[in-house]
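Hey, can you fold this one?
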Amino acid sequence: MRSLILTLCKSSSKQWHRAVDCAWRMKPSLGHLLILLAIPLLLGCQPAITPAPEVVAVTTPASSGDLLQHYAPVIYQGAASDQDFITAVNFDGDWVGNNNWENQPDGDLSAYVYASAIETDSHWYLFYSLFHPRDYTAEPCAESDGCHENDMESLQVVVYKDGSAFGRPQALLTLAHSHIYLYRFDRSIAGGTLKVAGKAPLEGSHPVVWVETYGHGIYGRSKRLQEGLVQYRVGSQAERPASTSETDVSYQLLSIYDTLWQHRKEMGKGKLFDKPFIYRKKALPASFDGNNFGVDKANAPWGYDQEIGDVLHRGDFFLDPARAFATFARVQTEVSDHYLANSYLQDLLIRQ
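Sure. Predicted structure:
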């Protein structure tokens, strides 16, 4: 009898239940049945129990500000001089575009990055813009034909809403001069109108980007940078590099919506912006007002016309990122075009 009981104790859950079922069919007395059911407990063993399915708790999504901090890029900035230091558009104390070249040597070159978050049902589109008062060359600007006043290059981190607080980064898009480059964080991304240029690297949760010396094009893969190197990381204060070789300089995020977007109507000579274009029946400035070594050469965040082809419109990269992303890449997950938060398009719908 004891060996039979030990065998039952060692049996699987399925075998134990079969034994109990057999006992019922034999119609034993109630006392015999209770003894049979109590045997495993008396011997210190229990039939195996299949665990209940784990209940996944619903996670509250992070706020836009927390998302922008979480994914704020690590910036490897090539630096031949302080003209390569990133800073604020009003680094010289005003919101005028065509005096920035002259004011660069004496302005406050503390580090800032402009940022914006747009949300759809399926994704967050996190946009970061880097401003330099001068785009310049190693050769004297009068000889190179490659310089201009003001420079704003940008990047976008596309985050899939997978149910977690911060989602899952899917793609990185970077702007370098006349091209937008597509990088992926995982295999859910394939090339659309843009080819996949490689896998985007991360430092913790922060994408790493390389920014050219002089011209300031942004790339999402390791690139040899000329001259010195300044490494910028998001922090609680805006710091100015002490030299062109610094390994940990803190930058602060500034809201594109609360700063640059609020000045969008200031267009013309001596104002912040110029070169108006029509987007959804509203006039927007395509570029910063600038005079030195070319007129109005630097694009505003909503003024890019790179890679738009025959499908997209100037400005879609920033203002309608879901549409642009669905064109630039083939995505295995859903790409919703229903916006939950897009203050820019909302503003353009309001009569002005």
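The chain has two domains: 2-42, 64-349. Let me know if you want another pass with a different chain boundary.
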